[in-house]
Design brief:
The protein has about 220 residues and is an alpha/beta fold. The protein has eight helices and eleven strands. It folds into two domains: about 1-120, Rossmann fold; about 125-215, Arc Repressor Mutant, subunit A (Orthogonal Bundle). About 40% of the residues lie in helices and about 20% in strands. It has a five-stranded parallel β-sheet with strand order 2-1-3-4-5, sandwiched between helices. It has a four-stranded antiparallel β-sheet with strand order 6-7-8-9, covered by helices on one side. Strand 7 and strand 8 form a beta hairpin. It is globular. It comes from Candidatus Venteria ishoeyi. Keywords: Cytoplasm, DNA-binding, Phosphoprotein, Transcription, Transcription regulation, Two-component regulatory system. It is found in: Cytoplasm.
Length: about 220
């Protein structure tokens, strides 16, 4: 799951990026709205975490422009502006959530999960497919009631596939969801993760469409 963080505070930006990496997200971090616009033009993100008090263009202006252009990506405002009027303005300009600094990383993670869950059209926190149950909040997986241990990357690949059941995801799409700018990607990284998932969950769960990508098929009711 790849996110964009626009935050000009170096200490906070480093802390949020590291914390979200630890939670399994790939996070690209920039320090101003202009760099954020460039990143949004060249990369695909699941969600934007946006500070308001940025050098140059204000975060609220960037948000307004994104929504005016038809960009529907979930946006979570992360700011020190705690007045009710600021919260109302942020939400009315298109933000999906508003979190005031200082904050707990656990709360930020919970809000991100809720936003991403709503974006995918799910009401329940867990992803279920047959006897498979994946819980993004606790980073746990069970198969027929038995706990299965996955690496962080394996978990992220499986989560992406389960959130897109019936849809083929290309290798590049999976790479983009797994790795941020500052991480080196081995040429066969996705194939390695898929291979390990098949060893743990069975060879038939994840299908390969040669030259196209990978998918988990829908279960016929």
């Amino acid at each position: 799951m790849r996110l964009l963080l626009i935050e000009d505070d170096l200490i906070l930006g480093n802390g949020v990026q590291a914390g979200l990496h630890g939670a399994g997200y790939a996070v690209d971090w920039v320090e101003n709205a202009e760099s954020g616009e460039h990143a949004l033009n060249i990369e695909s993100y699941e969600l934007l975490i946006l500070d308001l008090s940025l050098p140059g263009k204000d975060g609220l202006q960037l948000l307004h422009e994104l929504r005016a252009a038809g960009n529907e990506m979930p946006v979570l405002i992360l700011t020190a502006r705690d007045a009710v009027a600021d919260r109302v303005s942020g939400l009315d300009n298109g933000a999906d959530d508003y979190l005031v600094k200082p904050f707990a990383l656990d709360e930020l993670n919970a809000r991100l999960r809720a936003l991403l869950r709503r974006r995918s059209g799910r009401a329940t926190p867990c992803l279920r497919h047959g006897e498979l149950e994946l819980d993004p909040a606790t980073h746990t997986l069970s198969l027929a009631g038995k706990a299965i241990t996955l690496s962080a990357r394996e978990f992220s690949v499986l989560q992406s596939l389960l959130e897109n059941v019936g849809r083929v995801l290309s290798r590049s799409q999976l790479e983009e969801s797994l790795y941020s700018w500052d991480e080196t990607v081995e040429s066969n990284a996705v194939e390695v993760h898929i291979h390990r998932l098949r060893k743990k969950l069975g060879k038939d769960l994840i299908k390969t469409l040669r030259g196209v990508g990978y998918l988990i098929e829908k279960i016929n009711s």
